[in-house]
Request: fold
Amino acid sequence: MKVWIYGDDINTDMLFPGKYTYTCSTAEEIKPHLLEDLDAKFAAGVAEGDLLIVGKNFGCGSSREQPALGLKAVGVPAIVAKSFARIFYRAAINQGLLLVECPDAVEAYKEGDEVQLDAVAGKITVGGQEFSFPKLPPEILAIRDAGGLLPYTREALSKR
Reply:
């Protein structure tokens, strides 16, 4: 697992350039353009299981779904941030992408530190130090476990 580190106020255009908004709609079309204006090496270098550790206000900007869809599609299981923009937070939940707000863990991370995340317990370990974050509601974890809001909703409706 690799940890990708980015700073504050990373907006949705940095995550997925707006010029592709109407030409890329599937995960496969989105993946090659992820973070292309922020980190040209990301799309080719990211692997399933990699984490992002980021600053405050991550995902600010427009309400496009492509950044969250693309990050989920490349196998990023979670993003740990000082804080998230509300619009990105909702888009990530819709895609089943786990977002963890834990400013102390972000501050503690040093290049090469091992990171372990337990979303159910609300714990993250960074370089041997354990940090707590507010436990996520069971509904959010269920959406993540189902693979996103649409699969979660389909599953719930099929049980009726």
In short: The two ends are 40 Å apart (CA to CA).
